[in-house]
Design brief:
The protein has 347 residues and is α/β, with parallel strands linked by helices. It has one domain (4-345): Metal-dependent hydrolases (TIM Barrel, Alpha-Beta Barrel), CATH 3.20.20.140. The protein is built from 11 helices and 13 strands. It has helices at residues 20-31, 50-62, 84-92, 121-130, 150-165, 179-187, 205-209, 226-237, 254-257, 272-282, 289-301, and strands spanning 4-8, 11-15, 36-39, 71-77, 96-101, 134-136, 171-173, 192-196, 243-245, 309-314, 324-327, 330-333, 343-345. An 8-stranded parallel β-sheet has the order 2-3-4-5-6-7-8-9, with helices on both faces. Strands 1-10-13 form a 3-stranded antiparallel β-sheet, covered by helices on one side. Strands 11-12 form a two-stranded antiparallel sheet. The radius of gyration is 19 Å and the shape is globular. It binds (4S)-2,6-dioxohexahydropyrimidine-4-carboxylic acid and zinc ion.
């Protein structure tokens, strides 16, 4: 049995680092294993203009040790007032790597998102011209659409029409959670890819609701039925270059999750690599872990894979992770995968 695996150092193509004391508390957990991460812009207020991204980047770097090799890849939050020229300038200077589309009301801090897609067409056309990827939160927000159907309906009503009307737009369907999403990505050309989270490879909707409500498994898009989880596992472990890791690690303090109306988000940064090695081993696909975590994302984003490596070691005793971390902004619960982990990242 393989008990040691060295891969190119992973990148996280979808990450929430927050700001202030929470940023300081969580950023080192990602920087420990990942060389780069696409940083989500859903702060309050959101990261809308190039100047916002520049100062947020500085705050992230200030939260990490001076000798860190971690590189935050910044994104801008698409609003109906986003200026195409500001986006183009931020992309061309190398400051931003993508723009994030939140349908208004879809998730945490998405109120400034898009309601009328005609209003953002000039920005999308500029992005298609310069090859800047659009990262999409793929859920409709209509109250009459069942929450478990919101991804599939988004593909049909929003994503497909947008792609047809803006040829050449490069799109990442973020945190895809359904077989519908996987099939849609596979039906498109090389301009379309998808990130898959660690937790959606492990939990289905029973984990959230069966035998008691478990707020630390609540995220958006919400975990779906088992057949969807299996489709995600098949896609992630297939080696198909259109699928890559975006953890969507999204810390919230315990009091904001363990309440009558709790926040959506699962904090997986500390144990993601152990969880993924476990999943890929279960699927007989350890040899394809590197493609998922370290090769497919750079290929889509048109950057070189990392030259540095990360080694995973399989021990005979379970790896112990703290079940909570303390931050200056409160205690944050670490994702409980529900089984023992034996793979650990070598220091
Ligand atoms: O679960 C989630 N948490 N999904 C999102 O789309 C946003 C994120 C957050 O920012 O907390
Ligand atoms: Zn997210």
């Amino acid at each position: 049995m393989t008990d040691r695996l060295t891969i190119r150092q992973p990148d996280d193509w979808h990450l929430h680092l927050r700001d202030g004391a929470m940023l300081t508390g969580v950023a080192p957990h990602t920087a420990r294993h990942f060389r780069r991460a696409i940083i989500m812009p859903n702060l309050v207020p959101p990261v809308v203009r190039g100047d916002d991204a520049r100062s947020y980047r500085q705050r992230i770097m200030a939260a990490l040790p001076a000798d860190t090799t971690f590189e935050p890849l910044m994104t801008l939050y698409l609003t109906e007032n986003t200026d195409p020229d500001d986006v183009a300038a931020a992309a061309e200077s190398g400051l931003v790597s993508a723009v994030k589309l939140y349908p208004a009301g879809a998730t945490t801090n998405s109120d400034s998102g898009v309601r009328n897609f005609d209003k953002v067409r000039p920005v999308l056309e500029t992005m298609a011209r310069i090859g800047l990827p659009l990262c999409v939160h793929g859920e409709v927000t209509d109250s009459d659409i069942d929450i478990f159907d919101r991804e599939a309906v988004f593909i049909e009503r929003v994503l497909d029409p947008v792609l047809r009307s803006v040829p050449g737009l490069r799109v990442v369907m973020e945190h895809v959670t359904t077989k519908d999403g996987i099939d849609y990505v596979r039906s498109q050309n090389k301009d379309m890819a998808a990130t898959i989270t660690t937790h959606h490879l492990i939990i289905n909707r029973n984990h959230i609701l069966a035998g008691g409500i478990r707020p630390h498994y609540y995220c958006l898009p919400v975990a779906k039925r088992e057949n969807h989880r299996l489709a995600l596992r098949e896609a992630a472990t297939s080696g198909d270059s259109r699928f890559f890791l975006g953890t969507d690690s999204a810390p919230h303090s315990d009091p904001t999750k363990e309440t009558a109306c709790g926040c959506a988000g699962i904090f997986t940064a500390p144990n993601t690599m152990s969880c993924l090695a476990h999943v890929f081993e279960e699927e007989g696909a350890l040899d394809r872990l590197e493609a998922f975590t370290s090769l497919n994302g750079p290929a889509f984003y048109r950057v070189e894979p990392n030259a540095t490596t990360l080694t995973l070691v399989r021990g005979s005793e379970p790896v112990i992770y703290p079940d909570k971390i303390e931050t200056g902004d409160g205690t944050v619960t670490v994702f409980d995968c529900g089984f023992n982990l034996y793979w650990r990242v070598e220091d």
